[in-house]
Amino acid sequence: MKKIMLVFGTRPEAIKMAPLVKEFKKNSSDFETIVCVTAQHREMLDQVLNLFEITPDYDLNIMKQGQDLYDITSRVLLGMRDLLSEVKPDVVLVHGDTTTSTAAALAAFYQQIPVGHIEAGLRTHNLSSPWPEELNRQITGRIATYHFAPTPLSKDNLLLENIDESNITVTGNTVIDALYLVVDKLKTNPILSTDLKSILYSSGYDIDRLSNGKKLVLITGHRRENFGDGFIGMCSAIKTLTERYPDVDFVYPMHLNPNVRKPIHEVFGEDLNTLNNMFFIEPLEYLSFVYLMEKSTIVLTDSGGIQEEAPGLGKPVLVMRDTTERPEALSAGTVKLVGTDYDKIVNEVSQLLDNNEYYNSMSKALNPYGDGLACDRIVQQFRN
Ligand code: UD1
Ligand code: UDP
Prior knowledge:
Helix content: 40-55%
Largest sheet: 7 strands, parallel
Distance between the termini: 11 Å
CATH class of the largest domain: Alpha Beta
CATH superfamily of the largest domain: Glycogen Phosphorylase B
Number of helices: 16
Radius of gyration: 20 Å
CATH architecture of the largest domain: 3-Layer(aba) Sandwich
Structural class: alpha/beta
Bound molecules: uridine-diphosphate-N-acetylglucosamine, uridine-5'-diphosphate
Strand content: 5-15%
């Protein structure tokens, strides 16, 4: 029986690894599944673990308030050293481009344990953007033996780096597996939407405000390369938009990183609840977030995962970044890069709110990132 260890630590990794954990566990006669969380994120990780009912076998519990990249790298590396010696997995699976995934891959490499990289081959080829993620995924790509590329384009990126084609499998992105699980829950359980309404209400947003056709702009942001001026540009643009469109609601579930919250306060003031149509709320657990995304008109974000999910729900996405490693939806016209420039954000959001034809051209539902069967394809690869 193969011993498979899955390692993850942040919210997006957990969302994207949760369906894979479930898939390996379904095949318990073939695999021993070991879940190790680094807890690079503590609260935001736990929200996902609770939702998907995953109890980690090991928890390195590394998060510190205001941690830097040295803290994360060294704490993951040292934590994994002892754990890998004890557990001796046959394969370590890591996800994407966080510092957890790269440090865990390096730890496995130091003990000559093969690494499988989930969501392999995404590239901007610009080491400054996203930072430090572009280097993280390139390093993990060098270390990994097995590469699970979400799309044919990500496979091509790996081939250009001379990765052996026989070690690459195009699987689709596991985020679509997670999204379908959640959308299915929402569809098949009508009582759930009543629960989610009350969760949102207690988080500070009354979804019934949308019942008269009111529009909703959903906002998230957290990228390190946007800290400072980038966030000030984003927040100033959002403030102008709330004033220009008093009949539109703007909802911003704020990331817990203090570097994200500081510029929000600088632009909106100490008390964030003074505007009638701007709602700053705490991070939502995944189910409530997807529910809110389904109800939204436009998504304004710098997130990676949301760029993959929102097109599936037919929502236009304006990405507050200069580059993206996910160009598939960009070519399809449902995602647009707006950077962090004040004028560009104000103009693009205004155009989508004012011009129906333009809005419709961007709101096609399409899913270049997967079909919900990525986890099954990954598990199949380990049967041989
Ligand atoms: C990390 C990843 C980034 C990923 C993002 C997803 C790295 C270098 N960055 O960035 O690739 O896109 O997660 O959200 O791997 N905090 C809490 N509780 C939480 C989570 C965060 O309090 O549950 C606060 C802590 O003060 C922590 C800080 O946020 O020190 C920053 O967390 P960190 O993981 O270092 O950076 P992120 O910006 O979240
Ligand atoms: N998300 C969530 N609650 C929120 C905001 C986002 O569950 O309040 C989900 C979102 O649907 C996506 C993931 O978190 O699956 C994206 O996380 P984030 O933007 O932090 O990281 P990135 O994808 O940019 O690495």
